[in-house]
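Z., the sequence and structure:
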Amino acid sequence: MPKTTANGIEIEYDCFGNTDAEAVLLISGMGTQMIRWSETFCKILANQGFHVIRFDNRDAGLSTHFDSASMPDFAAIVEAVSRGETPHVPYTLFDMANDAVGLLDSLMIKRAHLVGRSMGGMIAQLVASEHAERVLSLASIMSSTGNRDLPQASPAVMAAMTSPAPHPLKDEPGYLTHCVAFSQLIAGRGYPFDESAQRDQALAEVKRAYNPSGFWRQIAAIAAAGDLRSRLANITAPALVLHGSDDPLVPPAAGEDTAANIKGAKLLIVEGMGHDLPPSLFEFMAGAIADNTRRMFNPAC
């Protein structure tokens, strides 16, 4: 896969479809690699007539890691944000948004459709609000605004997400069991859970890159960004907010809040979907994203 320098870091990326078509930039979630956007989904989206680009966020996959940074002090971060101050963190979501813009610059793409999932949805929201001239449309999937008054994940889900996994080089079966158990916990009940596919995904990711400390720095980046609602008022691109009705990690109220704070945004609650993107929804999701891109020309759609 190719790599480029953007915003002062190295970014690993991959492309599908006709390079002369309008670009769709897929932005990954917290602690996940670009291959979480499966090749099958990317090809389905490319077949809608797009140049599809996926990439590793900083501190994930094969993009630049920030391992020399100290472990974030989350209590100090929360305290600083509550005082309206900028906390001391290795980087913020604003830096990650600038990475996305820098990647577009490197690829000489003036404007793109943005699609972000979970943390990637927040990054996409920031690009659309801070760099409106670069954004053709926005799709925010299973994401949030950072509004601290929103319902949070259950204690059981939070405990599972933050509990340390066995080291894959010392206990690969234990590591994979841990990953699959968490995936099943956050999956929606409306679609079959493929344990074998989830195990294969976890194995492919850990063999590609292993950077558990990056997960904590990305959490810190989200915490440091705070509440994004005031910035969402700046978004002018056609916006689609997709959220699962059964999402136990980022409850549906977060998607509702996102749509309520973006003028003209369309909200689509997908019945039975959790904090995942099951293969049986690939065609539906790609179609919804494509339909939203057409609102550039017909806002009444």
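The domain at 3-153+211-296 is CATH 3.40.50.1820 (Rossmann fold). Residues 160 and 182 are 6 Å apart (CA to CA).

Let me know what you think.
H.
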